[in-house]
Design goal:
Largest sheet: none
Number of domains: 1
Number of helices: 18
Distance between the termini: 15 Å
Structural class: mainly alpha
Helix content: over 70%
Strand content: under 5%
């Protein structure tokens, strides 16, 4: 049992909670940034390689990320379960839920294979151009090879993070991102004697980096955490733990699907408008996603600390920790609003070759989209923080419904109506995103605080 999970908070002030959340969350933020660098590097290097390749990877990576994030629901379910069980001193349960989280992650990757292999006809049916669909389909067929190790590694990262070993997660992810960048430089452009593979080179680089991450983090778990015997008799099923992770994880996966699907669908609709708008949208989404990862890291830290409070039966610590995490997230949201409104052109230009003839057109659209991104920073921060806290208290089904209402019933519908019937184009799609995230933020935050005012643990009791 770790110091993080096993001891009651020594100083119950909100400031102490904020410091502890930052201590736990900063390595997680760095890990998310390093992991996302894989996608950023793909986008930047393919933007240098050509606008057509960039448009294809925007669509293809959105499709892949949608499946990755949905499958990661089981990894995220492991995080609150491990933190609660560790706080309660149940080390055997820690091992059981982590193993079955890996099982479920690999099973999901197997089920996702047809969608990845049939990427081209699926994208054609969704209205993408023949060239973009063909290129993105080839990219997806290769990227499937990286989905099983990526999901399994995410589960082990959740296990380590829940036990307070976030520094290890950061180091492994940073090294893998650097490895991916070097492979990209070689395989996309044909440097260092490698073949020039363009779009497929980016896919192979990502796959190799994902397998390397799993191998390294698996070796660390085996050597540093022998008390859990994580891989001993790994093939033996544990159906009680399997269904426990499944019950908590599938709503998380559907919630993630609803959120990421909102942005993936917006990319598809942007493709209906034009290649320039799609490229600008992809760049603006990448920039907004980088700032969002700060909130996601804090949300993960909030999940871990809320889970530990649940395991300790500490409702007051839960509430104060939630206030601290939400306050930190709000400060960062305000800072990003200033950034997006003051230097949008500089940020967009980082992703494009200065000599590219399409630069002025992409820049003009991208600057407008970043201004709209500034509008949803606080709402986006609120909804992801509320989701993290609700997962920590093992409440995932009602939040799934709230997310679906906000993201799709409100957000997606508004994006389509504003962009096409009302003829607002690309800005209309992003105004719909603003509306959907705002509704989700209000619903989810209200849900958490209604539960948190109860003077008892909110989630199911640890085994």
């Amino acid at each position: 049992m770790t110091e993080l999970a096993g001891a009651r908070v020594r100083d119950e002030s909100v400031w102490r909670h904020a410091a502890d959340t930052l201590w736990l969350g900063l390595p997680l933020i760095g890990s998310h940034l390093a992991q996302f660098t894989v996608s950023i590097v793909d986008t930047v290097m393919l933007g240098w390689y050509g606008i057509e390749a960039l448009a294809a990877v925007v669509v293809g990576s959105s499709f892949f990320f949608l499946l990755l994030i949905m499958g990661s629901g089981f990894a995220w379910a492991v995080m609150p379960l491990v933190s609660a069980e560790a706080a309660a001193g149940a080390d055997a349960q820690v091992r059981r839920v982590t193993r079955m989280g890996i099982w479920l992650s690999i099973l999901f990757a197997m089920l996702a294979l047809p969608a990845m292999l049939w990427g081209e006809p699926i994208l054609l049916a969704l209205g993408q151009s023949a060239q973009v669909s063909a290129d993105a389909g080839l990219y997806l067929a290769i990227m499937w090879l990286g989905l099983p190790p990526a999901l399994a590694a995410n589960t082990l990262k959740s296990y380590l993070a829940a036990l307070g070993r976030t520094g290890v997660v950061l180091v492994v992810t940073v090294v893998a991102a650097i490895f991916n960048g070097l492979l990209n430089w070689a395989l996309i452009f044909g440097n260092w004697g490698a073949p020039e593979l363009g779009l497929t080179g980016a896919a192979w680089a990502s796959v190799l980096a994902q397998w390397a991450t799993l191998v390294v983090i698996g070796l660390y778990v085996r050597q540093a955490m022998p008390q859990h015997a994580m891989f001993q008799r790994f093939w033996r099923p544990d159906w009680e733990a399997f269904f426990r992770v499944l019950r908590l994880g599938w709503p998380i996966g559907i919630t993630a699907l609803a959120e990421v699907g909102l942005f993936s669908a917006s990319a598809l609709m942007m493709g209906w408008i034009g290649t320039i708008e799609l490229a600008a949208h992809g760049i603006a989404i990448q920039i907004a996603s980088v700032t969002f990862l700060f909130h996601l890291g804090l949300s993960n830290a909030a999940t871990i600390r809320a889970g530990a409070a649940l395991g300790r039966d500490d409702p007051e610590g839960l509430r104060r920790g939630a206030l601290a995490a939400a306050g930190l997230s709000a400060v960062w949201a305000l800072a990003t609003v200033v950034l997006f409104l003051t230097v949008p052109g500089f940020l967009i230009a980082l992703f494009l070759d200065p000599a590219d003839a399409a630069l002025p057109a992409v820049l003009a659209v991208g600057v407008t989209l970043l201004a709209l991104a500034a509008l949803f920073q606080l709402a986006d921060a609120a909804q992801v923080m509320a989701l993290g806290l609700l997962r920590g208290i093992q409440d995932t089904r009602v939040p799934m419904i709230h997310a679906a209402v906000g993201y799709w019933l409100i957000g997606m519908s508004a994006s389509y109506v504003l962009a096409f019937p009302m003829e607002m184009g690309a800005p209309g799609i992003w105004l719909g995103l603003v509306l959907g995230l705002t509704v989700a933020g209000v619903l989810l935050s209200t849900r958490f605080w209604r539960l948190a005012v109860r003077r008892r643990p909110v989630g199911p009791a640890p085994s």
